[in-house]
Hints:
The protein is of the alpha/beta class. The chain has a single domain (15-322), classed as Alpha-Beta Barrel (TIM Barrel). Helices cover 37% and strands 15% of the residues. It contains 10 helices and 9 strands. The radius of gyration is 19 Å and the shape is globular. Keywords: 4Fe-4S, Iron, Iron-sulfur, Metal-binding, S-adenosyl-L-methionine.
Amino acid sequence: MNNSKPNKDTLYRRYSEYLREKYGEKVYKLPINLPVTCPNRDGISGCGGCTFCGDEGAGFENLSNLIPVPEQIRKNKEYISKKYKARKFIAYFQNFSNTYMPFDTFKMVMEQAARENIVQLAISTRPDCIREEYLQFLSELKIKYNIDIAVELGLQTVNYHSLRKINRGHTLAEFIDAVLRIKKYGFETCAHLILNLPWDTRMDVIESAKILSALSVDQVKLHSLYIVENTVMGEQFKNREFEMISVEEYKKRVIDFLEYLSPYIVIQRLIGRAPEENTLFVNWNTSWWKIRDEIEEEMRANHYYQGRLCNYLNGSAVRHFFD
Ligand code: SF4
């Protein structure tokens, strides 16, 4: 695999390029929707869920969770194959917490997804839903079907005070524990972050980049906060209990984040997409791709790139003795 570092021309390590390097061609994600919930909603880790979370969780573009897994894969594969002439796929368990289910159910659905032309299972979940038995089973599946495993963890921020304010139901420690456990099995890890959470500052964003780099997380997916009707954060937003940062500030935070991030971490996206229905705030009423393009333009114009300021690891204070 090409591990070349980003520079002022390439800007950052793009997920699509990384997949192409790894699998030799373009690879497409097939979303799979399971009838699962989340321990932050059913009272195990917390009640009511994260303050920004609507009823749909993250996967508003998914098929119904009542459709069996093989059928969801078949339908999505047929559609994407036709549209993009795709031949390799990632089975993507996106919505809610996809390791939060009885062990036997987990084994069944993962085995059902390990089908022909599926090169990877990408499993999205919470840091407090990572358990050895499940990881051990995935490592057996990896060998049996010669399939890669990636676990996507919702972290949102490393600021554990903010995590408490958004009723996340876990702190930074559970995230660190989950990453270390997953890495033991050689699976890839992806961290999801929201760079414009109310109460977070630019320093929190930089610290997030530093902690993910120190942990050697493999991938990052950045989101911008969108605010949904009938959520706690929706009410706080209407009552003006916090100020949303400007789009200019969001762009600066993304650039800061990338500059401090290890150059080896792959970037899945710089900004999220969101449904417009029932939404009180989304991407400053601008298209996500326009904001992404503006971030890239600003980086290019100023010679900023991912990893440029990643000089704080491996005993930075004694480095000069080796220069
Ligand atoms: S962990 Fe995810 S699914 Fe659960 S409440 Fe929070 S955002 Fe919603």
